[in-house]
Amino acid sequence: MNVFELSEQELGRREALKELRQMGIDPYPAAEFPVDAYSTDIRSEFDENAETPRRVCIAGRLMSRRVMGKASFAELLDSKGRIQVYITRDDICPGEDKDIYNKFFKKLLDLGDFVGVRGFVFRTQTGEISVHAEEITLLSKSLRPLPIVKEKDGEVYDGFSDPEMRYRQRYVDLIVNPDVKDTFYKRSIVLRTLRNVLDNAGYTEVETPTLQNIPGGASARPFITHFNALDQDMYMRIATELYLKRLIVGGFEGVYEIGKNFRNEGMDKNHNPEFTCMELYVQYKDYNWMMSFTEKMLETICIAVNGKSECVIDGKTISFKAPYRRLPILEAIKEKTGYDLEGKTEDEIREICNKLNMEIDETMGKGKLIDELFGEFCEGTYIQPTFITDYPVEMSPLTKVHRSKPGLTERFELMVNGKELANAYSELNDPIDQEERFRDQMSLADKGDDEAMVIDTDFLRALQYGMPPTSGIGIGIDRLVMLMTGNPFIQEVIFFPQMKPEAKAPRDNAEAYTRIGIPEDLVPALQKIGYNLVSDLKEVNPQKILQQLSELQKKYRNIVEIQKPSLEEITKWVSAEK
Questions:
Q1: Which residue from 232, 279, 375, 388 puts its CA 20 to 30 A from 417's CA?
Q2: Which region is the signal sequence (predicted)?
C-alpha cells in the first residue's frame, strides 16, 4: 500500500494498530469468541424480575462511543441490530493497571472496530436495556473510517446515499443503511418460499451447465469466452431451458433451477447483464395450468414477504391475490393502438409500424415487429398482474402451436408494474416442427438479427427420443424481489451489480519520472502532492515543489521517511521536462 494514499484518519488508525501491538494486544486474534446472545434477543428476552441478571457474551462493530470520565457508553452493531454497552473503568480494570480503559478503550479503539463484550444485562436509569461490560476484547481492527450518518428528529444527515458509492462499496452500505440489509433478508425469504412451493409440489431442483457450446433457450446476445483445454469458444448461458427439457425427456416429472443467466445487453434500472432466473418444467401440463400455478405461487410469496397479498412500489399498490387478468397479445395491441394485426403479413405490420412513427429496421421479422409494437404501446400500461397470452408463432420458436387459433402459440408473459416478470409455454415437443422453427431463426440471423436462436442439434436429437406434453416457465428473480420489496431499481436488490470501472485520474508510471532523473522511491510523494504526470512539473517553481515535499515529510514523519531532494535537483527535473 502506498502510504501517501492514506487519509489522516487512516494514518491515525495505523498508529493505533502499532500501539496495540506494543501493549501486547493482538488486533486480529484467531481464537473463537463464544458469542451466546444477540441484540434483538437480549431486548426481547429481558426479565425485569429475574433474581440474578442474565450474563451474556456479545460481539459486534463499535458504532458510537460517549466517554464520561470513569464511565462510558458505547453502541455495538451485531448481525441482528444494535445494543448499548455500559463500561466503567474499575469494572474492566479491577487491578491497579487502568490502561485497558484509559488507553485501549478511550484512545486506541476506533468506530468500526469489532469488539467482544462479556457482562450482564440491565436496564439503565433512562430505561434502555443494555449490557454492563466486565471485559472487552478487540476482535478486529478497522483501518478505514465508516461514514458517520447522523440523525436528528427523524432527519438523516451526512448519509451514505450516493448510488455509485453504495453499489461499489455494498459492504459499507450494509453497515450504515439498515434498510438495505432488510431488503436482502426479504430476498432470502422470496427464494426460500419459492423453493418450498416447488419442493412441496414434488419437483426436483437441479443444476445445468453455465458454460455452453450453443447459447440456446432464449433470444439474446451472449457473452463469449474461450475454453483453453478444448481450444474452442464457449458461451455463458442465456437460459437454462434446453437442458431442463432434456431432463424431462430423461424421465423427471418436474425439474426447476434457480441460477444465473448472462445476456450481453444494456444496463438500466430494470436490467443487469448477470441476473437470477428460476425455470420450471412439468410434464403432462399446459400453459393454462401454469397460469393457475404461477398466480397461487406468487400470492404465497407475497404473503411470506409482506404479511399480505399486496405490495407497494413506485407509489402503486399491486395485488398478487389470484386470479389475474388474461389477455391475448393481439387484443392488447388492438386495445392500445386501434390496429388489428390478426392475419396481417410482415409487410402489412411494417406499414402499421411506420404509420405509428416507430423506429424499425429491415432486420426485424414479423415476430420482432409485433414485439416492438407491444413494447412501445402496451407493456408499460399493465400495472396489476396480467397474463398476456397467445403470441404469434414467429415470436415463440420453442412454443407449441395453439390448439384452436392458427398462427398463434400457447404462450404467456406475466406483466406486473409495466414490466415482464415471467414467460411460459406449452412446450413444443414435435422435433420436426422444432427443427423448422430453428431454421426460421437462422434465416433471421442471416438478415442481421444477432439475438436470433442457433440450431441446437443435440436438443433436437433429445426431442426425437420423445418428450411428453410439458409446460415450462421462467421467472426473473431480481424483478420479483424488486416488486416484493418496493425497490424501483434492480441494483437495489443485487448485492454487487455490474458497474463501469471506477474513474481514476491518469498517472504516469515510475519509469516516466526516472527518465528525467527523479528517484523511483520519490514518485509516490510527488504524485501525492499533485504531480500525477511528468508533464505536471512543467513550468512549476522548484521552490514550491521543495516546500510541498517538506510539508508532506512533516505530516508523514512517523510513517515513512522521505529522502528530500535539493533545490538544485528539483530545478534539473523541471528543466528536463521543459
A1: 279
A2: none
